[in-house]
Amino acid sequence: MRRRNSLYIFTIPALLVLALFFIHPVLLTLDMSFTSYKGIGEAKDVGWRNYDRIFSRERYYSEIWLTLWYTVIVVTALTILGLFFAAMLHRLPLIRNFARAALYTPAMMSFVVVGYVWQFLYSPLNGGINVALRDLGLGALEQNWLGDPALAIYSVAFTQIWMFTGFTCAIFLAGFAGIPEEINEAGRLEGANSWQRFRYLELPLLGPAITVSVTLTTIGTLRTFELPFILTKGGPDGATRLLSIEIIDNLFGQYKFGFASALSIIMLIIVLTVAFVQNKILRDREDVS
């Protein structure tokens, strides 16, 4: 009993940090969300008016839906591509370290650098993508990648997918490293080809890695701000105006601290709900596997 109590004592610093830098700010944000605070002066209590405004206007529902759809696109692509590259590199040990470093390099770059580089590549006039298509004789495929409302959200999503594929690949490679070689050897002795070993032997054992990858990428994508802001600033015509951009615009553009706080609480609830449900489903899948 004494040993157990001493172990609890070691959690106190972590709990203090959590309370100081997470719980306390959340409580302050929640309190501010019931005010009309402008950043200066007195914070006047307005009750549920900020939340009523959010749930009574169609634009905020559209932004929430767009944020969720953007997250589905990015997380699905990152999971599939990361798993694909990890499976390939797991079978190619001679180039594994070099390829892993090359894939992970974009994730170490600044959002600002990546955003401006891809903004140039997407340029409709002399951007790298349209020039390449023109040189390949595929001029008919040229697009206004960031200026077309139907394409803009997918262009932004592609940039984030390109940036973080190496991150998910690294997680899955760690999962592959934890699979005993005896299992693959048994599969070979039974005559299973590479795809069959991956599908029936390796994939079920990658459950924990899939849970970690999907959870981290989902949380990160739900609250993403930098790339959509740098590439499109929420345009064109609101086609990439995610909930995070709406929060920042109200906070620093219009100085509506109270309303921005209410939007932040809504985002926090969405992130926690999605992460909890997702983690529950993935953990249950691990138990079944």
Fold and architecture overview:
Helix 8 runs antiparallel to helix 11 and helix 11 (207-222) runs antiparallel to helix 14 (257-288). It is built from 14 helices and no strands. The mean pLDDT is 90. 73% of the residues lie in helices and 0% in strands. It has helices spanning 2-9, 12-32, 49-56, 58-90, 96-104, 111-121, 128-135, 152-177, 181-189, 194-205, 207-222, 226-231, 243-253, 257-288. The chain has 289 residues and is mostly helical. The protein has one domain (48-288): MetI-like fold (Orthogonal Bundle), CATH 1.10.3720.10.
How many β-strand runs? Answer: 0
* CATH class membership: Mainly Alpha
What is the assigned CATH homologous superfamily? MetI-like
Low-confidence stretches: none
String of helices and strands: HHHHHHHHHHHHHH
| Domain tally | 1
Summing up helix and strand content along with how strands pair, one would put the structural category as: mainly alpha
Q: Remind me, CATH topology?
A: MetI-like fold
How many strands, what sense, and barrel or not for the largest sheet? none
- Output mean pLDDT: 90
| Gross geometry | globular
Kindly estimate the percentage of residues that lie in beta strands according to DSSP: under 5%
Helix content: over 70%
Oligomer: single chain
| Structural Rg | 23 Å
Organism: Epibacterium ulvae
Pfam family, one: BPD_transp_1
Keywords: Cell membrane, Membrane, Transmembrane, Transmembrane helix, Transport
Family: Belongs to the binding-protein-dependent transport system permease family.
Helices and strands in order:
Elements: H1 2-9, H2 12-32, H3 49-56, H4 58-90, H5 96-104, H6 111-121, H7 128-135, H8 152-177, H9 181-189, H10 194-205, H11 207-222, H12 226-231, H13 243-253, H14 257-288
Helix pairs in contact: 2-14, 4-8, 4-11, 5-8, 8-11, 9-10, 11-14, 13-14
